[in-house]
Please model this.
Amino acid sequence: MKNFLISIVTISVSLTAIAQNNGIRGFLPSNIADQRKHEAAAQQTISEKEAEQTLFMLTKEPHHAGSAGGRRVAEYVRQRLKEFGFDSRLAEYHVLLPTPRSVSVTILEPVEKELSIAEQTEFHPEALIPFNAYSPSGDVTAEVVYANYALAEDFQSLEERGIDVTGKIVIARYGGVYRGLKVLEATKAGAIGVILYSDPSDDGYMAGDVYPKGPMRPWDGVQRGTIRFAERYPGDPLTPGTPATKDAKRISLEVDPDMPEIPCVPLSYGAAQHILQTLEGPSVPRAWQGGLPFTYHFGAGPTKVRIRLDMDFQIRPIWNNVAVLRGTEEPDQWIILGGHRDGWIFGAQDPNGGTAVLLEAARAISRQVKAGWKPRRTIVIAQWDAEEYGLIGSTEWGEQLRDELKKKAVVYMNFDATISGPTFGASATPSLDLFLKSITADVLDPGKDVPVLSAWWQNQNKDEATRLEDIIPETAAINVGRMGGGSDHVVFQNHLGIPSMGFGFGGPGGIYHSYYDNFDWMKRFGDPGFRYHAAAARLAALAGMRMANADVLPFSLAPYADEILKQLEGIEKRHKDSWPATLSLDTVKQKASQWKTMAMKVDEKIAQPERPRNLKEINSLLSLLEREFAVEPGLEGREWFKHRIVVATGYESVGLPGIHQAAESGNWESAARETRILASILDSIIAMTSRLDALL
Ligand SMILES: [Zn+2]
Model:
């Protein structure tokens, strides 16, 4: 490993002597050797065996939010981080967590049949039976309509065919979009109940052998999951914008506009087939046909179904792990690495591969601290609770520490479902694109014996003419994704304006949110040998150590300006027919271009800082720059979301959300206001960048 790293570094230097700075952006020449030494040593101490053991311990028992098992796993994580020398604590909140008392789905016609709800396994007594969190209790009986993926266009298609959904129960398959959006669309179409099931063509036997023979979803595997469509705010539904402390002021459930209105229940395809098979009416088009061995029909009916749900809506305690390794020189600059700890059942893939990765990274960092490495900045390792219910633990913590985080947080790195196979992927705030690429250049992809960066490039580029050794961070043609919704970075990026990133190794699987997402699945299919856990822990350790100790924070600003220019172009193109002549985007485009020119110069100086004049001011400017993008008031109608460049909607990320949502609804007055907001953001950013240029 060590020899390999040295050879990579040599190649990089020969190719980009200009900007590469021996492979570590942001370090003064005199500090590189020591950092390099500890980074390499940290990598070497990370072991597959230890990662495996850690994941085993995390996934021994069900540990959904608010459960006794959840509390025990929190305690385990707290102990481990304490052993690693962190100041390791639990932060408790009291949040609304419904659990199912009873769930039943009965076919009444044409032939009466009670469907099985839970996986047919030796069900652990502490495991929750399948349910959709925040579905109301209810007892509804109606004819059934099949609605494909329950997207807006699917309901439109039903309407065009004259199939009325009003008063019916909709059955729809999982996939494509966030499940809460499906329930919302069904409600808008007039349905009185929803059944969501996993179709075998999506992640079952049509996609590969099913568990336990293969990694895909078996006949009885059910996808659980929350259905609250957090359009206005994520986190605890009862405490919008404020931390859910024990005696926090709470709104009543009825006031939450994002709360689902109709009962919804998840089924396996083994159960759902009994409903689908007896539906009549016209047969569905090819695109709607799933993988069950009969022709699908729209309905409505004659199949008639009764759904009965009894949910226990209670305020229950949750526990975040927050562990701090105090920085020696700049303790008030926080490098935060976090991920959720709660799983729906055993959660080996979602989320605890990420938990194991973070614990192994923490262990590696602690070993370097013992060997004399000192973090200049503070490293915070967090494990959130109740993410599955709606990003609750991270959101409540972010809301509680809002002012402090706005001052001190440098970066948030998210680790959720980090490991499910061998294929690397990542997403980030644009200012972290280059940082991500540079850490991946220094860790080996265990399956391919090339740096993760090269393997990542190869996934996206099938061009065999380029030699993998020639792939370097500065020039690698890799598309870094933007962060959408559905995980714990949302509060940091969207609400607080903290640069965020996440990465992982993915692969095929059909056990998502089911009883079968367990240690055995991971050991046999997700990551045999735990080599990708170890590789991800190396990346995490490197990312933490590098951000903590860089002399100049290794952000790169030009990709941000590029992203803004790209989004502006996209919006112009999309609305070119309706865009009013009085509203011009030329000024913001010109400002973004101006920023880009300055940013390129500053990025080069960050790569190889020579004699920066005031490191404290430089780093403060760099870490506060992102905050400029998150402005008050927040987005119209969803004020909790402050960021004006990229924001989450469902699982998606939306670029320039203020202008975008105004243009979508044809509200040109609001579009003009949002354009002015963007212009004034760019003015401040340009001023900050100009100051950086002078100091660097
Ligand atoms: Zn997750």
